[in-house]
Amino acid sequence: MPELLLELFSEEIPARMQRKAADDLLRLVTDALVAAGLHYEGAKAFSTPRRLALTVTGIPAHSAPTREERKGPKVGAPEQAVQGFLRSAGLASLDEAKIQSDPKKGDFYVAVIEKHGRHTTDILAEAIPAIIRSFPWPKSMHWGSGRLHWVRPLQSILCTFGPETEDPEIVRFEVDGIASSNETRGHRFLAPDVFTVRRFEDYAEKLEKAKVVLDPERRKDIILHDARDRALALGLELVEDEGLLDEVAGLVEWPVVLTGTFEENFLEIPPEVIRATIRANQKCFVLRKPGTTDLANRFVLVSNIEARDGGVAIAAGNGRVIRARLSDAKFFYDTDRKETLESRLPKFEQIVFHEKLGTQAERIERIASLAAAIAPLVGADVAEAQEAARLAKLDLVTEMVGEFPELQGLMGRYYAAAEGKAPAVAAAIEEHYKPQGPGDRVPTIPVSIAVALADKLDTLTGFWTIDEKPTGSKDPFALRRAALGVIRIVLENGPRLRLKALSSRHATMLGRNDSVSNAIADELIAFFHDRLKVQLRDSGARHDLVDAVLAAGSEGAAQDDLLDIVRRVEALGAFLATDDGKNLLAGTRRAANILKAEEKGGERFDGAVDSALLVEPEEQALAAAISDALPAAEAAVANENYAGAMAALAGLRAPVDAFFEKVLVNADDAAVRVNRLRLLAAIRSATRAVADFSKIGG
Amino acid sequence: MSHEPLTQELPPHMRPEKSFQGLILALQRFWADKGCVILQPYDMEVGAGTFHPATTLRALGPKPWRAAYVQPSRRPKDGRYGENPNRFQHYYQFQVILKPNPPNLQELYLESLAAIGIDTRLHDIRFVEDDWESPTLGASGLGWECWCDGMEVSQFTYFQYVAGIECFPVSGELTYGLERLAMYLQGVDNGYELNFNGREGAEKVTYGDVFKQAEEEYSRHNFEHADTVMLKRHFEDAERECRMLLEAGTPDPKSNDQRHKMVLPAYDQCIKASHRFNLLDARGVISVPERQSYILRVRELAKACGAAWLETEAGGKAA
């Protein structure tokens, strides 16, 4: 069956956009084929810095003819309806319509719309220009005097279609003056001449000869293996970097891996700084001594050409730039250490954090106060937590962080350590930003935990007090991430924190009165509950149990103690996975449904069960079981023995089942009936000591 | 394509890889040969070659335009008292603007590299994504940093907006960082050691001979002594003057000639305001929120000048 080859050749496409563009091209073209009734066997898209390419195989040469019957108005319907029908069916007059009879509805018009199959080349020639004109680049431009938008100027379009056995034909179309052809070019410098191609196999082969590796995965593979080999040859190890590898593979069509050198004395600079410098500015890899974290004074660069001199000039040139960059970095590192971190604090009085939340200096003081309040709760030394919080942001005004913002925290740690600060204080400066995202690690040292929590709670409470909450997809201050950070720190380290009291106190520090602070803290806790559900869902836990647990009426249950909530959720989840749990859930639901129906009139059945009115042995047994289980469950909850609480509830399962099996709630005697309804209400309230079963999904 | 260096017929002291001025002359010759008007630097203090009205204003409107020029550029904050060999508060840009951009602008750019002695079969030239934006000019474009063996030697931009106005046709702008390029070509790591005139021995003049004292003196001025009260006043004067001139140049609605009469002098005041702002910024007297408001004020002037430019003959307005 015939295959399609499409190449869109342009000036250099930003590396970060190439992969998605190839995926989009594949999706848009195959969707268009399917929409035209053309099915295909396979499709694959590729990208290089200068081209997007697509091959789709097994496409029929024609689309199948179609026949559609469209029902119209009744014979004799008003003129308006008839005209509307003719227009929508594309008929000139009613003579072109058939009349069909229906025994019930009478005669009506039917239009038979027959479409011939079309040549696939015609379908492609129509669909592809439209796809090119509305291609979803994240950022596009126009150029010259043209009107087409593309990521960078589009230079040529290659498009062929045909069976394997014959010479395919060119799918002819034109986009903004660019006519499709069967021609392309090779590597910009190594093989710039135009050549013609037939189909994909031929295309990929000729490109390879013209020094273009079409498949980005192969370019990555070549770079990675050559880089490892080069490292090995030097007795070193490549510091692998997937993000950099992706980017570099998007900057070259013909990867040539080279190595270069810089002076040994630069190795005095922290390795993270060397790596950040070489990575960000030069897009080169660094090497380390095998089995250590010590960097070597070598780097790996990926060139786009096979140079006449074997790459000597290129490696030397890159080495010079890297030396200049490292000189800058060393200068920053030395300059930064001439002053203490603390001496930089006054600068923060000039920097506005947010116009409604004051200066950075005020914020730092708030975080320090909060960190001191949290410290005893997480086993941290109060003075250390306070000191770390006061130092944590100060590296933001150092030269190094000004140059490499991604080194924030880390530089503070180096500088604090160099000043002889306590190791826990220095570590907390780096770790207080963590976790930055779902994949980032969570701090585990108590001082770090205190400052990390204080930093995030300050941000959350602060933006809540000025009503800047995340809405929909908008979360400019990354508040969801901050809340998730708090949740992960708490769950993974296990401190018992009453978040409400902490955030309410903090809102007071931000100048709100007690009742406002209290309300803000309540809203924030609700936000934490939402984020907790997301977190549990993402980790595969039963997020649907959170509401059931939160709605439980027991007095001791804290709504703002995340760890406690999660333990209750876990215990409930484990219980519901047992037979007792499942049956008790079913029984409780049944009780709740009956009560719901009976309570419609406004009558309530919360009154005490009258033991004198208990007739059947099963209802007597149930009443007895409830009066055993309820205090046992409550006592267990109060002791945070949630498994015990569940075990107490499990004792209800058999009596509840027996009750429903043997006892008729709707007794003839009105007093007995009311008493039985009260018994049902007692089941409901007994389970509520642990969770509101009516809020459990599924 | 392979570009063989075209510089061999020149005497050694004139070669772009041997002298700073040789580099400038080679670029001028190259772009003159491509039909550019070779202009001289604009006679005002600007932060970049883009500020020259030959770029900012000429990028607007339908008329074709090709120009190339050296522009001394002042960035007061980049002063380092002559102590940093790579950073100067005054440096040179070589600026090329082609409207509409020819379809082979990348090839022309690569040919220009060959013309200054960069062999693309020996050096690794790369176009790395870098979108350009000038908040003060209300201008932005898409393009690349051009790398030679890992060093950024030029900026290549297709203008999309200038003075807040969408560009049509689109201009291609090339900006060569001359000091960096020359350091690369001459193989020196210290900008002050660049050979300026290509001579050797007693006749040799270095970049440092020409500019080191200036860097020291201007750093003192920019960071310590520039009178901030006066600068603020000058900023406001320039702002007022710019608006006054635009107003005064607006045609009388009854006149037969509906073209604007005074855009260029008004735009000079916009340039002046921008540089006063840069000096105030270097003096560290502008707070973060104030900074934003200054930028916005300059941008408003640039936008007003751009809009008025379209009402002039060179901006494409018929009488």
TrEMBL record, chain A:
Listed transmembrane segments: none
SUPFAM superfamilies: HD-domain/PDEase-like
EC code: 6.1.1.14
Name recorded for this polypeptide: Glycine--tRNA ligase beta subunit
GO MF annotation list: arginine-tRNA ligase activity; ATP binding; glycine-tRNA ligase activity
Subunit text: Tetramer of two alpha and two beta subunits.
Cellular component terms per the entry's GO annotation: cytosol
Species this chain originates from: Kaistia soli DSM 19436
Family: Belongs to the class-II aminoacyl-tRNA synthetase family.
Biological processes annotated in GO: arginyl-tRNA aminoacylation; glycyl-tRNA aminoacylation
Location of this chain's protein in the cell: Cytoplasm
Class of enzymatic activity (EC top level): ligase
Reaction(s) catalysed (UniProt annotation): tRNA(Gly) + glycine + ATP = glycyl-tRNA(Gly) + AMP + diphosphate
InterPro entries cross-referenced by the UniProt entry: DALR_anticod-bd, Gly-tRNA-synth_bsu, Gly-tRNA-synth_heterodimer
From TrEMBL, chain B:
Compartments, record wording: Cytoplasm
Keywords in alphabetical order: Aminoacyl-tRNA synthetase, ATP-binding, Cytoplasm, Ligase, Nucleotide-binding, Protein biosynthesis
EC code(s) of this entry: 6.1.1.14
GO molecular function per UniProt: ATP binding; glycine-tRNA ligase activity
GO biological process: glycyl-tRNA aminoacylation
Keyword tRNA-binding assigned: no
PROSITE patterns (alphabetical): AA_TRNA_LIGASE_II_GLYAB (PS50861)
Recorded catalytic activity of this chain's protein: tRNA(Gly) + glycine + ATP = glycyl-tRNA(Gly) + AMP + diphosphate
Transmembrane annotation, as ranges: none
Major place of residence: cytoplasm
Alphabetical list of InterPro entries matching this protein: aa-tRNA-synth_II/BPL/LPL, Gly-tRNA-synth_heterodimer, Gly-tRNA_ligase_asu
GO CC terms of this entry: cytosol
Source organism, top-level taxon: Bacteria
Quaternary structure note: Tetramer of two alpha and two beta subunits.
Protein family membership: Belongs to the class-II aminoacyl-tRNA synthetase family.
NCBIfam families reported in the protein's UniProt record: glyQ, PRK09348.1
Designated name of the protein: Glycine--tRNA ligase alpha subunit
Species this protein is from: Kaistia soli DSM 19436
